[in-house]
Amino acid sequence: MTVLILTSEEDVTADMVVAQLHKRGVPLVRFDPADLPGDGTLSAEYVRGEFRGYLSTGGRVVSMDGLRSIWVRRPGEPAAHAPEPSAWLTAESGQALYGMLHSTSARWMNEPGAAARARLKPWQLRVAHRSGFPVPATVVTTYPQVARQFADQYRHVVVKAVSGKPPHDPPMALPTTLVPPDADFADVAAGPTLLQRYIAKEADIRLTCVGEELFAARKTAAPGQVDGRYGETGHTWEPVPVPDRIRRAVTRYTELAQLAYGAFDFAEDAEGTWWFLECNQGGQFGFIELETEQPVADAVAQWLSIPAD
Amino acid sequence: MTVLILTSEEDVTADMVVAQLHKRGVPLVRFDPADLPGDGTLSAEYVRGEFRGYLSTGGRVVSMDGLRSIWVRRPGEPAAHAPEPSAWLTAESGQALYGMLHSTSARWMNEPGAAARARLKPWQLRVAHRSGFPVPATVVTTYPQVARQFADQYRHVVVKAVSGKPPHDPPMALPTTLVPPDADFADVAAGPTLLQRYIAKEADIRLTCVGEELFAARKTAAPGQVDGRYGETGHTWEPVPVPDRIRRAVTRYTELAQLAYGAFDFAEDAEGTWWFLECNQGGQFGFIELETEQPVADAVAQWLSIPAD
Q1: How far apart are CA B165 and CA B162, in angstroms?
Q2: Chain B contact probe: residue of A81, A84, A95 with most B CBs at under 10 A
Q3: Quick check: A53 and A63 in contact, CB under 8 A?
């Protein structure tokens, strides 16, 4: 049975998993929805209760009843590489492809509907609370006075994007930033703004969850550093054990969110508490594996290798 | 407790339900995500495990813990009416709004993740099979020779859009159409094509499912008519009883699809069999109610009125 990896051509993280699947002798097909129609082709028949389908790319054919799992890694937009792309061709190709894939009994990492919901940052905070994580007080608001009150109450607050992705038109970096005491909140009315109590952190924690396998890594923060993604600290990611309490909370979170994969970010404070910041259902793990030698790619390959029900 | 209706300003179908909710004395707020930020505002706080949120529009405020249900009727794109709209502001506003709404315990008609999956036409056919509906043989393919073989095998086949929505740039009507015997299938390679065995139909059936309430209506077809949405037949929609077998299949379908609302289309053949064509999770019901006097809007209002858990 075959593993289907939906991703675009240049994807080093996918390459790492592909190498592990090869080691295990598990057949796989790498498919970019952007190539459909064109190099990518499909056919699905629904006849008298029977469903038969197959997908083909680069001369490789995969039968839908021989599919064990689908890894939604970084798929291109359907039909993006078509000679005459259009919004309608994208809709038709996307419905054909994902409709066919949803007709199989393959296991998803992650199922697209669950993934879409799991991206909603305010929802993440709610689920994190319910799962037992400590979560810094947070407000999402379009009211300048609510933002002002929140900043006054908690004194040290950070502002960050609600949707997680920075603007790309024009492209702009949006690091999580400390709000200065004299900030003018008038512009909060122009777009929902997320403010969060600042956790004075000793370290960033990245916990990668692959099915039931958890890999935690810790990187000491530079004094006063706010966003771990930006700036050099001179420190590297080091593997750390996963506390039992965190393990239970992660399990509860991924159950509630119906995720097979999630990359959790925590801030570790001076007392050693891991504060939930976010869970990125499509988060990278290549940089963690390179620095910690934690076998995340192998765990992904192993999860994908389990036969479908 | 309040009902939240997400829809744009001009929506006659929503008006019908609003009238029924008024009759029942159930408070409601109508909110267009396109008005956020601007006339629409929101605020959500996540503090020590507690979640408090509210939404405001046109001077009305609705508290998230006072929300009994959310009707996703025809919402505008978040931030579409902002003075400086952008893809990023749409992402930020959408995440803030839907993230907050998903943090509530309100009941959804329909939950957005389930709705997205339920739109996948090939998946519908699979679920319809599993639910016990007769489904005409169907193929979705990018292979001209597969299309050709399917047409040869079934002789009378129709072609229709995979995604259900016609192209809007340029706008184009795409009625379901009989494929002529000498059709050239070469263009199938240019985009996934859905062919389905033609059901010589006596009538169109529209079955509207609202929670556990089912309303079936029948409209006699004109001789040789293929797409019930186009052309005058001289016939009107008449209420018909729902056969037990169909009721069981509808219940199974909406359970599998996790839908509170669905508009099912069937073709009734000469033997009286109802062939499943599609289930539109956001299908209109105004035209049915007007012609049949079936109280669909009232059923929607009743479903929305049930308090949240």
Answers
A1: 8
A2: A95
A3: yes
Q: Are A199 and A136 in contact (CB under 8 A)?
A: yes
Do the chains contact at A88 and B112, CB–CB below 8 Å? no
Pick from B37, B117, B141: CB nearest A102: B117
Report pLDDT digits (tens) over B87-108. Answer: 999 999 999 999 999 999 999 9
* pLDDT digits 0-9 by tens, B135-177: 999 999 999 999 999 999 999 999 999 987 777 777 777 778 8
Determine the residue among A56, A149, A162, A187 to mutate to test chain B binding: the one whose Cβ has the most chain B Cβ atoms within 10 Å: A162
CA distance B191 to chain A (A): 6
HEC assignment per residue over chain B: CEEEEEECCCCHHHHHHHHHHHHHCCCEEEECHHHCCCCCEEEEEEECCEEEEEEEECCEEEEHHHEEEEEEEECCCCCCCCCCCCHHHHHHHHHHHHHHHHCCCCEEECCHHHHHHHCCHHHHHHHHHHHCCCCCCEEEECCHHHHHHHHHHHCCEEEECCCCCCCECCECCCCCEECCCCCCCHHHHHCCEEEEECCCCCEEEEEEEECCEEEEEEEECCCCCCCCCCCCCCCCCEEECCCHHHHHHHHHHHHHHCCCEEEEEEEECCCCCEEEEEEECCCCCHHHHHHHCCCHHHHHHHHHHCCCC
Which domains can be identified in chain A, with CATH numbers? Answer: 2-109 (3.40.50), 111-134+200-281 (3.30.470.20), 137-198 (3.30.1490)
Q: Which two tokens stand for residue A102?
A: 């949803």
Residue bearing tokens 């995440």: B95
Query: Which chain B residues are within 8 Å of A48, Cβ to Cβ?
Result: 137
Q: Chain A residue with minimal CA distance to B128?
A: A49
Which of A77, A117, A150 has the most B C-beta neighbours within 10 Å, making it the best mutation to test the interface with B? A117
Contacts of A167 in chain B (CB under 8 A): 86-88
Size of interface A-B (CB pairs under 8 A): 223
Which pair of tokens denotes residue B82?
């902002």
Instruction: pLDDT band for A247, please (50, 70, 90 cuts).
Output: very high
